[in-house]
Design a protein that fits this description.
The protein has 282 residues and is of the alpha+beta class. The protein is built from twelve helices and 14 strands. It folds into two domains: 77 residues, Arc Repressor Mutant, subunit A (Orthogonal Bundle), CATH 1.10.10; 190 residues, no CATH class. The N terminus is likely disordered.
Length: 282
C-alpha cells in the first residue's frame, strides 16, 4: 500500500484551491470517495455535468486530481494534521483503470505470500490493450490476455473495496504461462513449492488445459519432478498426455542456452541447482 508523504516538489507545484473546489474535495473525502466519477461530483455538489467536468479538469491541472480514465478521478493526497498519506491502495487504483481485469502474476504471488519479493509494479490482467502507466510512483503493467484465459479470479477485500485477484491456482498457472511477468522461473518455482501442501495440483492442471498452452504443463511437470513434489499418478498422466511437440524455454527471460529435456519438451536454460536450492531453503 502506498503510504509515502507528498514530496516538497509536488506540493510546491500545486495551485491553490478555490472555496468551491476545497468544499467539493472535502465532501468527497469525508464520504470515503477518494476515487470518484463526474456523476459523483454532480451528486455531491448540485452543479450540472458540464460544470463538474470543467471543475475536474481544473483540479487535474492544479494537481489535486489524477485522471484514471475517462470521467474517473483519484484525489491526490491531502494534508492530514502533521502528516499526509496517499488516498488509496495501489490494487484499488488498478481496479478502476480498466474493466474487465484482475490483479495477477507477480502481484498476486506477493499477495498470497508465495514470494518474499516485493514487486514495484502492479500486474493487471485484462482483455483490453492498454499502455503501462505510473500513478503516484507506482507502475501499472497491463497484461493483455485472451478471453479464453480470462478466468480463475475472485474478489478480495482491499482497503474496504472489492478487488479482483487471480485465485491461488490460476496465479500459478499464469506465472508458468508467462514467467517473465513474475520475475522469472525461479519465482514461479518458489510458488509451486510453497503451494504444494495448500493448493490443488489437479486444479492447476485443469486451468492449464483450459488455457491451451502446453508450456504451462511442461514447466509444471519439470518443476514438480525436480523439487520432488508429490503428484498423483492420474495427475501426472494428465500432464503427460497434454504435452505438445516442440521445445519451450524453461525461462523465457534467460538466454536460450542449456540442454534439451526430451521428457518435458523443454530447453532447460537455467542452472537446476538454483531451483533445487529453493527446496533446501524452506
Amino acid at each position: 500500500m502506498v503510504t509515502k508523504s507528498v514530496t516538497n516538489n509536488t506540493k510546491n507545484e500545486r495551485k491553490g484551491l478555490s472555496k468551491t473546489e476545497s468544499t467539493l474535495l472535502s465532501s468527497l473525502s469525508e464520504k470515503g470517495r477518494t476515487i470518484f466519477t463526474l456523476k459523483d461530483l454532480v451528486e455531491n455538489s448540485g452543479i450540472n455535468y458540464d460544470n463538474a467536468k470543467v471543475i475536474a479538469n481544473r483540479l487535474v491541472k492544479k494537481r489535486w486530481l489524477i485522471r484514471l480514465s475517462r470521467g474517473k478521478y483519484l484525489i491526490v493526497p491531502l494534508e492530514a494534521g502533521v502528516g499526509s498519506k496517499y488516498t488509496e491502495h495501489e490494487f484499488v487504483i488498478a481496479s478502476h483503470l480498466t474493466d474487465p481485469y484482475y490483479i495477477g502474476y507477480w502481484s498476486a504471488l506477493n499477495f498470497y505470500g508465495y514470494t518474499e519479493q516485493m514487486p514495484f509494479t502492479v500486474f493487471v490482467a485484462t482483455t483490453n490493450r492498454l499502455k503501462r502507466r505510473t500513478i503516484l510512483d507506482t507502475r501499472f503493467w497491463f497484461i493483455t490476455i485472451t478471453e479464453k484465459k480470462f478466468f480463475g479470479y475472485k474478489q478480495e477485500n482491499i482497503a474496504n473495496s472489492k478487488v479482483n485477484i487471480s485465485d491461488e491456482e490460476k496465479t500459478i498457472a499464469d506465472c508458468l504461462d508467462h514467467p517473465e511477468y513474475c520475475g522469472g522461473i525461479s519465482e514461479a518455482a518458489k510458488a509451486v513449492w510453497n503451494i504444494k501442501d495448500e493448493s490443488s495440483i489437479e486444479k492447476i492442471i485443469d486451468y492449464s488445459i483450459t488455457m491451451g498452452n502446453s508450456a504451462i504443463l511442461k514447466r509444471l511437470g519439470f518443476l514438480t519432478e525436480l523439487l520432488d513434489i508429490e503428484v498423483s499418478k492420474d495427475d501426472m498422466e494428465q500432464i503427460r498426455s497434454n504435452l505438445k511437440k516442440g521445445y519451450t524455454p524453461l525461462d523465457p527471460i534467460e538466454k536460450k542456452k542449456g540442454y534439451y529435456s526430451t521428457k518435458w519438451g523443454l530447453l532447460v536454460n537455467v542452472d537446476k541447482e538454483w531451483i533445487i536450492e529453493i527446496k533446501r531453503g524452506y
